[in-house]
Design a protein that fits this description.
Strand order of the largest sheet: 4-3-2-1-5
Strand content: over 45%
Oligomer: single chain
Radius of gyration: 13 Å
Shape: globular
Structural class: mainly beta
Length: 85
């Protein structure tokens, strides 16, 4: 499956830098979220401006990416073939 991916580094609240390869939620294939979202009855989380929920390709889980503290530039989008399970 071909998806648009991004890679970037940001500074976490702890002061540590984190580099992440991710897919933006809007770029996930239709039906991907089925079975991945655990509590569909919960209120949607609200993130501060510049913080985005993404799918971390390496950890294969949801993470937040803080665009407010980006180190350098975020690379992408880049088309990548990945196996989604």
């Amino acid at each position: 499956m071909i998806v648009k991916t991004y890679t970037g580094t940001f500074t976490k609240a702890s002061g540590d830098d984190r580099t992440m390869s991710f897919i933006r939620i809007k770029d996930l294939p239709a039906g991907f979220l089925d079975g991945k979202v655990k509590n569909t009855q919960a209120k949607p989380r609200k993130f501060q401006h510049g913080v985005e929920l993404v799918w971390d390709i390496v950890s294969k889980d949801f993470r937040t990416f803080n665009f407010n503290t980006v180190v350098g530039n975020v690379a992408g989008p880049q088309d990548m073939e990945i196996i989604m399970d």
